[in-house]
Amino acid sequence: MNKKHIAVVGTGGVGGYFGFKLNKTNETTRRHKISFTARGETYRILKENGLSLLSPEHSENRTRPDEIYGEIAEIRNPHLVLICVKEYDLENVCRQLSGVISEETILLPMMNGADIHERIRSIIPHNIILPSCVYVASHIKEKGIIEHHGKPGKLIFGKDPEHLSEDVDWVAELIRESNIDYEFRKSALTDIWTKFIFIASVGLVSAKHNSSIGAVFAEEHQKKEAIAIMREVKLIADKKQIYLPEDIIQKTVEKAAAFPFGTPTSLQIDINSGKEENELELFAGTIIRYGAELQVDTSSTKKIYQQLKKKQLNI
Ligand SMILES: NC(=O)C1=CN([C@@H]2O[C@H](COP(=O)(O)OP(=O)(O)OC[C@H]3O[C@@H](n4cnc5c(N)ncnc54)[C@H](OP(=O)(O)O)[C@@H]3O)[C@@H](O)[C@H]2O)C=CC1
Ligand SMILES: CC(C)(CO)C(=O)C(=O)O
């Protein structure tokens, strides 16, 4: 594989965790160039101290990126861009990326959401975009310092359905070499919706009650709310002809039980800490919109959406 430039855009929970692993491996192999883009104070700290990851997986918790940019406009000749931002920054990031990528650049979003690859495609129509989902419990402890708990993070990604014949095996090889747990599929759509049914339901209910993943399923009322949202997502997936197994709800409850009881969700943290922006639209907004388009009743999601809107105003 020729030397590639891998640009990590967004050095938060996800970009910091997966980017750390890429860079740590590359510090030894020196096969590629790994760059990070970060804003403001995070940029300054990364420049000064490098990137730190506090994780049971790594005893050596600091890595020095080859290049750190304070703005997307500074990125030069990237072969692969990992888009690791919250959904409310996605369109802004994509518009800026349009100015720095070539037609060969591959885009790999590492985000929650059911339609992220389509949203990227509406701004960057001709590049290869690899649909994906990620499982990891990591967050910004302090700017430039990422904390990771629980199981090793996992990336599931697939071929671009509009560029099926393009060879993107080098991306899978890079991920494998970096000791990242991953699956590479011909199509990742079922995986994306399997993650979406989980995180949309658990995220919304945990945000409403400020409860952890374990607590959502330990409390009967919360569990009922989560299952009602899962049912709505399953009906939408069926209408969109996205395969989810018939026992997906049972499987999703089991998946939740595999997380340490106290694991928070990112939506819970963002809403209950009074952060100005959060991913409520990514979860509830998307379900409600698809419901309207496909004539699926989404009254449970609409109810919790209104409750969370009110909660935001009162915080
Ligand atoms: N954290 C987790 O455990 C998991 C998160 N996810 C999903 O992954 C996605 C990313 O989440 P996460 O990493 O937690 O989010 P974070 O908020 O931790 O990190 C996002 C980072 O992107 C940065 N950013 C935004 N816009 C720009 C820009 N224009 N230039 C440079 N940097 C930018 C932000 O900078 P700044 O700090 O300056 O705002 C922030 O540091 C979300 O969709 C989330 O739902 C999925 C699974 C698990
Ligand atoms: C629940 C978790 C941590 C699982 O990856 C997640 O995706 C999120 O909080 O957004």
CATH class of the largest domain: Alpha Beta
Task: State the low-pLDDT regions, or none.
Answer: none
The helix content is: 40-55%
The average pLDDT score comes to 97
- The geometry reads as globular
Strand order of the largest sheet: 5-2-1-6-7-8
CATH architecture assignment name of the largest domain: 3-Layer(aba) Sandwich
How many domains? The number is: 2
Beta content: 15-25%
Which molecules other than protein and nucleic acid are bound?
A: NADPH dihydro-nicotinamide-adenine-dinucleotide phosphate, ketopantoate
Can you write the helix and strand succession as a string? EHEHEEEEHEHEEEHEHHHHHHH
> How many strands, what sense, and barrel or not for the largest sheet?
6 strands, parallel
- Class per helix and strand makeup: alpha/beta
- Determine the N-to-C terminus distance: 51 Å
> What is the CATH superfamily classification of the largest domain?
NAD(P)-binding Rossmann-like Domain
Task: Compute the CA-based radius of gyration.
Answer: 19 Å
> Remind me, CATH topology of the largest domain?
Rossmann fold
Find the count of extended strands (DSSP E, 2+ residues). 11
Domain Ketopantoate reductase N-terminal: 6-159
Keywords: NADP, Oxidoreductase, Pantothenate biosynthesis
Catalytic activity: (R)-pantoate + NADP(+) = 2-dehydropantoate + NADPH + H(+)
Function: Catalyzes the NADPH-dependent reduction of ketopantoate into pantoic acid.
